[in-house]
Each structure stands twice: as C-alpha cells, then as structure tokens.
Amino acid sequence: MQREYPSAPLVGVGAVIVDHGRVLLVRRGKEPLKGHWTLPGGALELGEPLLQGAVREVLEETGLVVEPVELVELLDRIHQVEDRIQFHYVIADYLCRVTGGALQAASDADAVRWVERSEWNSQSALTPDLNLDPITVRVMEKGWQRSQELWPHVPEAR
C-alpha cells in the first residue's frame, strides 16, 4: 500500500526512549514532517508484531537497541492537503529503555538528540529549533512521567 494518499490508514509505531531523565528525538529526513523533530518510529511491516516493529524502527533510525516497556498512547496522525488525505497513520507509541547499540542517525532520520524535560516542557528559548508538535510533546510527557514512576531511582542527566 502506498504511504502518500493511501486508500486506508497505515499502522505505525513510535518510541518514547527515556534515558537518565532525557528523551530521544530524531529529525525526520523524509516526508511526512521532513525536517521536524519527533519521536523515532515508522510504519509497521506486514506480519510484524507491534513491539518488534518498534524495536526495528528505533534500531534503523538511531542505532540503539531498546526494550519496549508499555504502550504510552495510541493515536491518529492525519495530514490533509485541501480535500485529500495525504498521510494517515494510526500510531502505537511505546515507552522504551535502552539496552544496547550506539547512537547515530540513520534511515529516515537525518539527526538524533537527547532532550531534557525543560526543553520540551517550555519550548525553551534555548532550543527554538525543536518546534515540536503538541501531540509529540503530549506523548513525550506521558512517557517521561511513566518512566519516573517505573524507574524513580535513575538520576537525570547533568
């Protein structure tokens, strides 16, 4: 099925990767949202379970091996051009923790970076280039909050 102007919604997976109180973002190198910072993720492959898809997408885009812990949110991403649906994804975003790998941008991502909560919470003047979508901020915050409940002993990065 084609991704642009599809005949039906596509299923995608995303990852809220929390490490030392920071969340990992990727800058998209392809449409949709080319040039925007967002969570790592992408389209599920036919026959691929959701959790495997999340692990694969993170590895492809960031070089990191992750363990999905739990579902953060299930959401729609619909991009419309005039009266036509250009992109429609139903995305399962998972809270993940890093278990291995080496961080590097690859595949659909042209850059990767760790961000502190203060950077997405206030859209700080220190990071105006993030320009995060409100949905992304909401999912990041939910994942970050849940990580603090699950791993309260892990110190934040300094």
Descriptive account of the structure:
The protein is of the alpha+beta class and 158 residues long. The chain is globular, with a radius of gyration of 15 Å. The mean pLDDT is 90. 22% of the residues lie in helices and 41% in strands. Strands 1, 2, 3, 4, 5, 6 and 7 form a 7-stranded mixed beta sheet that branches.
Q: How many domains is the backbone divided into?
A: 1
Number of helices, counting only DSSP H or I runs of 4 residues or more: 3
String of helices and strands? EEEEHEEEHH
Task: Assign the CATH class.
Answer: Alpha Beta
CATH homologous superfamily name? Nucleoside Triphosphate Pyrophosphohydrolase
Write out key terms for the chains shown.
single chain; alpha+beta; 158 residues
Give a quick rundown of the structure:
The chain is of the alpha+beta class.
SSE blueprint:
Layout: E1 10-19, E2 22-28, E3 37-38, E4 41-43, H1 50-62, E5 64-81, E6 84-101, E7 109-115, H2 117-121, H3 134-150
Parallel strand pairs: 1-6
Antiparallel strand pairs: 1-2, 1-4, 2-3, 2-7, 5-6
